User: Fold this.
Amino acid sequence: VLNTGEVSNLFPQDETDKIAGDMISVCKEAGIPETRDNCLAHFVSRVRDKLHIVLCMSPVGDSLRIRCRQFPSLINCTTIDWFHGWPEAALVSVAERFLENLELPSPEIRASVVRMCGFVHRNIEETAVRFYNELRRRIYTTPKSYLDLINLYISMLKGLQDIVEVKSERMKVGVKKLQETNSIVDALRGELVKLEPILKAKAIETEALLIDVAKQSGEANIVAQKVGQEEAIVGKQAAETAAVAADAQRDLDRALPALESAVKALNSLTKADITEVKSFTNPPNAVRVVMEAVCVLLGEKENWETAKKLLSRSDFMDLLQNYDKDNIAESRLKKLRKQYINAEEMQVEVIQKVSKAGSGLCLWARAMDVYADVAKEVGPKKLRLDEMKAQLAITTAELKEKQAQLKIVLDRVAGLQKTCDETLAEKNRLQAESDTTAKRLVRAEKLTNGLNSEGERWRSNITSLAAEKINLIGDCFLSCACISYYGGFTGVYRDQLIDTWLHQAGVLHIPASVKFSLTTTLGDPVQIREWQNQGLPTDPVSVNNGILVDKCRRWPLMIDPQMQANQWLRKKEENNSVMITTMRDANLLRTLENCIRLGKPLILEDLGEQLEPALEPILQKAVFKNGSRLLIRLGDSDVDYDNNFRLYMTTKMPNPHYLPEVCIKVTIINFTVTMLGLEAQLLGLVVKAERPDIEQKKVQLLLQMAEDKRQLQQLEAKILQMLSESEGNILDDEVLINTLSESKLTSIAIGERVAEAEITEQDINEARGRYLSAATRGSIIYFVIADLGGIDPMYQYSLGYYTSLFSRCIADSERSSDLTMRLSNIINYATLIIYQNICRGLFEKDKLLFAASICFQILRNAGEIHDTEWNLFIRGPGAVERQGMPPNPHPESISAPMWDILYTAEQRVRYVVPPKVLEDDADSAAVAEQFDGYEDPNFHRSSHEAPFEDLCDSLKRNYAGTGVPSDWDTWMGSSNLMTEPLPGVHNNTVNIFQRLILVKALREDKLQQSIAAFVGKKLGPKFAESPNATMEDIYRDLDNKTPCIFVLSSGADPTGMLLRFAKKFGYGDRLNIVSLGQGQGPYAKQLIDNGTKSGDWVVLQNCMLAKSWMPELDKIIFELQERAMKDDGGVHKDFRLYLTSAPASYFPVSILQNGVKMTNEPPKGTKANLLRSFANLIKEEDYEGVAAKSIPWKKLLVGLLFFHSNVQERRKFGPLGWNIRYAFDESDLETSIAVLRRFLVEQDAIPWDALNYVTGHINYGGRVTDDWDRRSLMSILSIYMVPDILQDDYKFSKSGIYHAPPAGASFSGVISYFETLPLADDPEVFGMHENANVTFNTNESLALMATMLSLQPRSGGGGSGKTSDDVVTELATAFEADCPQQLNEDDAGPTTFVIQSNGLLTSLAICLSQEMVKFNRLVRKMLSSLKDLKKAIRGMIVMSSDLDSMYTAFLNNQLPSIWEQ
Assistant:
C-alpha cells in the first residue's frame, strides 16, 4: 500500500469488471483512451490521490526498529512525525477544559488544581526515568493516564465530599437533637410542678359530678324500666299484627299468580281476537262454554246472543279488567263452579286449540274463581288485622309519649355525663401530660446520659469533617494521582512522590491534609483489617496496594513474584466463586465468558509481557447496551455483561517490561513483598512454631477486633441515621429511645471489649516482638536471595519455597528454655542452612558474593555499617573536590583512584557517635541519657567519630613506597590484612568494615580474600567456604511434583553423577534420559506421562536448546503439580523429574522458583575441590575396598584428587596456567580412579609408567591439544603419581601443607585433613610465584565488586547530597577539560619520523604512528561521548544504551565500556 497505493488482487473478477465499466465515462471525460488497463490504472490513480494512511506506532521497545528494517517503505514512503510528550501548556489546557465545570471554592483553587495536574504528570515522567536509572524498572506515562487522572478526580471528589457531608449532617442532627433534649429538660420539670394543683382540683370536681350523674342515672333508669315494659307490650302487639298480615298475604299470594296470568292473557287479546270470536255464527263448543262462564260472572244470560252483545261492547275489555273481584255474588260463583269450572271445554289446553281469545277469557274466568275462593278466607283476617292495627296505633302513641319523657330524663343525664366525661378527660389529659413529661424526663436522661460522650465526639468530628471536606480537594486529587500513576513504583519511590506532591500542593495553596495518606483518604479500617485477615500483608505498601486494587478504574495487573497478591485475592473472592486460569489455558475464552455472564471474579495468573489480543475489549471495558441488555464483544460473539464481573491479573515476573500500549489498558500495581511485610509473615511463622498459643490467640483476636469494629461502625451509623430520620419530639418515640439506648449499651460493651482487645493485642504484640529478631534475619536473607536474580536468570526462588525452608529451620534448630539462647539458635541455624541450601544452586563465583551480601545487609540493618562508608566501599569516591586534596606522596605505589578513595575516606567518613558510659560514673551516664543524636543521619553506633582522621598525612609520614620497610608497607605486605595491626592510631579508630575500605584502596588484589575473612569473622567460618552438596541432600528435598534443575556450566555434565545415584537407589534401569532439541518435545512429554504412572525417573537434558518448547514444559509441570496435590491425581509417589540447562533467560520462572536447583561445576579452591570430589566419588566402602594394597590405594587415590584439583585450579591463572582453557571435569577423575583400582587389583606390582600414561596422556591428555600444555600436565602428574608418594614424609609442595594422608588414615580422617587445608590457595601448590596470584586475585576482586555493585540501586557514590545527574555532569565536564589534544606528526621532534635510505620509517616510528592513530581515535571518542552524555542528561538527545552504560560507569567510578573498545 505504501509503495504503489494498491493491493494486488484485492477485488474479485466481477467487481474488477464493474470498476472498469464504471470508469469508461470518467476516462472519456479525462481524455484517456477507454481501454480496460487504462480504466483500472486511472481508478488506482484516483484512489491513491484521495487515500490517506496514518500509521501510529510506539517507539518503545524493538518493534518499530524491527518493522522499519523489515519494511523499508515505512521510512521511504512516509512522512515521519515524532510525537513527543505533551508539553506543560498542553497539560494545563486540557485540565482547564475538563475542570471548568467542577465545583471548587474559588477560581484560584481551580487554577491551582489545573497546574497541579500538569505538575504531577511531569513529576511522574521524571521519577520514571530515575526509577529506571536506579532500579532498571520501566514505567510509562501517557496522555491516557493524564486523562484518567482528571476524570477520576471529577467523579471521585463529589462522591467523597457527599460521604463527608452525609456524616457531618447526621452528626449535626444528632448534636441538635441532644441540644434540644438538654434545653427542654428544665421546662419539662416546671410543667410537672404546674400540673400538680390543677390535677388535684380536677379530681375533686370530677368526683362531685360523678355522684350527681349516678343519682340522675338512677331516676332515669326507673323511667327507662317502665318505658321498656311498654315497649315490650307494643312489640308483642306489633308482632301479632304482623303475623296476621303475613297469614293473609300468604293466602293472597296463592291467588295472585292465576290472576296475574289472566290479566296478562287479557292484555294480549287484540280487537281482531274479539272480532274473531264475535264472528262465529255457530261457535265451537269450547268457545260457547267459556263465553257462558263469562256471562255468569257478569250477571248476564248464559247464551251465545248475550255473549255476542257483550263482545260487541266497546268497554268489554275494561269491564273484565276492572271487574270487582272482591265482591262476586255467591250465586254466580256456585253456578260457575257447578256448570263450568270443571267442564272439559273450560280446560285451558282445550280452548287454546280452538281460539286464542277464548283461552284468555278462560284463564280470566278460572282466575276469578280462585280469587273468590281465597278472598273468602282472607276477608275475616283483614278485618281482624284492621282492628289490631288500630289498637297498635293507640299503644304506640302512648309509648312515644313515655319515650319522650324518658328522652328528657336521659338528655339531662347525658348532659351531666358529658360534663363529667369532659372533666374526667381533662383530668386524664393532664395526668397523661404529666406522665408523658415524666417519661420524657426519663428518656431525656437516657438520651443525654447515653449519648453525651458521643455528642462531644460528634461536635469535634463536625469541625474536623468540615476541614476534611475542604482538604478533600487536595487529598482526593493526591489519591487519584496515586491510583492513576504510582502503582508500579516501589514503596520508597511512592513516599517520595507523595512528599513532592504534598509540598507542591502547599506551594499552590491547594487545601490538603498535613500528612496525606491514601489509606486515610480512601481506606476503610474495617475493610482493611478484613483484607489482612484474608492474607493481605500488613505493611503500608501492601495496604495501599489493596486500596489500589479496590478503587482503580482499569483492571489491575499485579507484579507479584512472591504470589502475595494471588493468595490474598483467592481468599478475598473465595465466597464469590472465584475462577482461576492462565494465558496458556486452552479454555481461556470459555472461562472468561462464563465469568462475564455470571458476574464471577476471574484471576488470570502468570502473565507475560504480552497480553492476549482477545482480552482487548475486556481491558477497554467496551460494554455497550442493546435494548435493556449490557453486552461486550468477546471473540466473534456478543456476551451478556454482569456488572459484578471482576478481572485480576498477576505476573510472577519480578521485573516485567510492559510497553505503553499495555500500561494504558491496565492499572499496574507492584505487589513485590516489602521488608516489613515479609518480616510480619516470618514473625507469624516463628511465633506459631514457638508459641502456637500466642499466634492462635493473635489470629482469634484479629478476627474478633475486626468484627467488633465493624459492629461499632454499624451501630454508630444506625444511631445517627435514627436520630436524623426521627420526626417530631424525639422524646416521644419510646422505641427510638430504647433502640438508641440498647445500641449505646451494645456499643459501650463492644467498645470496652475493643479497648481490652487492644490492650491484649499490645501484650500479644509485645510477646511476639520478642521473636522479631529471628523474623528480621529471615527477611534480610530473603531479599538478598531475591537480588540474586539480577546476576543470573536461573537464581530464582519463590517466597513459598523460602518460607517452607525457614519453617524447617525453626523446627530443626536446637531447643533451649532460655529465649535469648533459643532465638540465637534459630537465627544462626536458619542463616547457615538457608545459605547452604541456596548455595547448591549458585555457581562458585557467586557463593562468596551471596555470603558477603547476607553479612553486609545484616550489619547495615543493625546499624554497624553506615551508608556513607558503604557507598564509599561499593561505589568509590564519586566526584572528588581536588582543590584541597594533598598531593599523592607516592604515585608510583598509590594510583590516583586509590588516593581519591583514601582522601574521600578521610574527609567524608565522619560520624556522630554515642557518648561512652564509664562504670560507676554518674556524669557519663547522665550525658548518655541526654544524648539526642540518635536521629542524626550521620549517627553511627559502631564507629569512631573520625576513623580515617589524618590518614593521608599518616601515609605521607609512615609509607616510603612498595618494598621499602615502613609501618604501612608491613601492613600491606601482610598475608592477612584483616588481622594485621594498622599503623598508628588507625588501629584503634578503624573498625573491621572500614578496614575493607583500606584494602580496596591499597591492596585491591587482596579484597576478595579480605571480604571472605570479614564474612568468616562476622558470621562464622562456614560462610567463608563453599558448602558441598550431594545428591542425597538434593533428593531429600524432592518429591513427585518438585523437579530438580541442574544448572550447567561450561564442560559440566551431571549425568554420570545422576546415573550413580540412580543405581544406588535401584533406579538404574528406570532412569529415562532424553536430550532436548528439535522434535524431542513430544517424546519428552510422553516420558513424563509414563513416569507419572510407573514411578520411573525422567531426565530432560539441555533444556536451553528447546526455547520454543519451554512454555509447554512450564504447562506440563504446572499440571503435574496440580495433579500431585490431589489424592487421585494419578502421579506416582516415586516419580522424579530432573532437568539440566545452562543459564537461559527464557527458562520458565515458575519452574525455577519452585524447583530444587543444583550447579554442577568444580568448586573454587583446592580445599573445596578435594572435599567435593571425595564426597561425590568415594564412599567409605570404596575407600576401604582394596585391602591387599590398602596403603598404595589410599595414597594414590588422594594423589589423584590433588592432581585433579591442581589441573582445574590452574585455569584461574589464564595463560600462566594453561595456554588453552580445558574443560576437565569429574568424569576424568572418575575414570582415572577406576583405572587405578583395576591396576592395583590386577597387578602384583604397581605399573607406574602405565598408570602415568593412561592417566596423563589418555584420561586427561585426551582433552589437551597444545604440546606445551601436555608437557605441563605430565610434569604436574609426576608430582602425585610417583613411588615417593607411598612414604609418609612425602609432600606435594615446599610448604609441607599438602600431602597424602599417613598410612592407616581412616575415611573420616581424610575428610578431617582436607578440612584443615587453607581456604585460599598459595601459588606454591601450583609451582608458581606469589605474583601469579596478584593478577588473578585482582580480577576476582574486581568481578566480585562489579557484581555486588550491579545489585545496588544506581546513585551517586559521594555523600555531597548532589543528584546523580549533577555528579555525572561534573565528572564529564572535568574529564572533558582534562582530555588531551590530538597528536599531530607535525608536532613531533625532528628525528622522530625520519625516512631511512630505503624509503621506509624506522620500526619505532611505524609503531608510534600506529599508536597515534589509536590515541587520536580514543580522544575523539572520549570528547564526542562526553558531549553527548551531557546533552542526553539535559534531554537534548536520546540517551542511547552506550550513553546509559557510560552514565552508570561514571556513578560507579568505572571505566566506560565504549572507551575500552
Q: What stands out?
A: Confidence is low (pLDDT under 50) at residues 1356-1360. The longest helix spans residues 356-485. The radius of gyration is 57 Å.
